[in-house]
Amino acid sequence: MHVLPDRKTDQLRPSSNFDQLEQEALELLRLIFADKIHGKAALVSSFGSESAVLLHLASRVDPDIPVLFIDTLMLFEETLHYQLELAQTLGLSNVIRILPDLHKARDADPYGRLHLSDPDSCCDLRKIKPLEENLCQYNAWVSGRKRFHGEDRALLAVQEVDEQGRHKFNPLADWQAGDIKAYFERHELPRNPLFYRGFRSIGCSPCTVAVGDGEDARSGRWQGQEKTECGIHLVDGKLVKKNTANEATR
Ligand code: SF4
After folding, report:
1. I want to staple 220 with a disulfide (CB 3.0 to 4.6 A). Which of 53, 161, 193, 211 is the partner?
2. How far apart are the CA of 108 and the centre of ligand 1, in A?
3. Which residues are 204's β-sheet partners?
4. C-alpha span between 21 and 13 (Å, rounded)
5. Any residues with Cβ below 6 Å from ligand 1, and which?
6. H-helix segments, the chain
7. Does the structure show a pLDDT above 50 at 237?
8. Which pLDDT belongs to residue 160?
């Protein structure tokens, strides 16, 4: 597998306990997906610039786990191709592509411009509602969010409880940018090709721009707006506070 060199700003060293971080994330995923400590669980992935790390870890536990991929119909072509290629590379056999309700999308956003006038409603229509309709069949879910992305994620716990009472896990919460880079290199994982064009956090094409060296990864999302999250991880614009950080899983 061919791995391109990272950009200058990503030439960061892994944490001194990087091996331990990897083992802890793997063990947590084993508890969730192999031991099913909370019952039926799914992993949610955007197939963005860092997604291959969590997907690879999960594939080491069980390549047949449900991977929910939200296709808003506004994604980059590169992400759609990458999703197919990465799933094949990792042997992920159960990627579930989640689409918005096409009738509702046609009614609420007939010209595909709702993101310009009301991005919160657009995210609700294209991401939050479709995900919620699928997540309701699971007892637990897993995301790839990390604390180093800052802002609303700076206080992220490894384990949370969402508004519906489902267990929500963030196995990479403690990871730093250098750990992500080191994992890509250790396991020779391919990046979303947009990463090499400066896209460090990749969402929908109308709402994502490349960022400069040294800028926060998520500063390219909804640039120029107060909005920083699609709402999947927030309730009414605030972090869900029902955290139940479980030190045993860190
Ligand atoms: S990120 Fe932009 S285009 Fe995508 S669902 Fe949200 S507002 Fe709409």
Report:
1. 211
2. 13
3. 75
4. 14
5. 72, 74, 115, 119, 122-123, 126-127, 203-204, 206-207, 230
6. 18-29, 51-61, 77-90, 102-108, 114-117, 119-123, 129-135, 177-186
7. no
8. 94
Distances in whole angstroms, Cα of residue 60 to Cα of each of 26, 92, 194, 222: 8, 10, 25, 34
Which residue do the tokens 């107060």 mark?
226
Residue 127 CA to ligand 1 center (angstroms) comes to 8
Contact status, residue 203 vs residue 46, Cβ threshold 8 Å? yes
Ligand 1 center–CA 10 separation, angstroms: 27
Pick the CATH number of 8-249 from 2.30.30.100, 3.40.50.620, 3.30.200.20, 3.40.50.2300: 3.40.50.620
pLDDT of 219: 73
For the chain, domain boundaries: 8-249
Minimum CA distance residue for ligand 1 atom 1: 204
119 Cα nearest atom in ligand 1: 7
- When computed from its CA atoms, the radius of gyration of the chain, rounded to whole angstroms, is 17
Q: Name the least confident of 40-54, 186-200, 226-240.
A: 226-240
Q: What integer pLDDT is reported at residue 238 of this predicted model?
A: 39
Pairing type for strands 238-239 and 234-235 reads antiparallel
Q: What is the pLDDT of residue 16?
A: 94
Atom of ligand 1 nearest to the CA of 115: 7
- Which atom of ligand 1 lies at the shortest distance from residue 127's CA? 5
> What are 169-188's pLDDT values in tens digits?
999 999 999 999 999 999 99
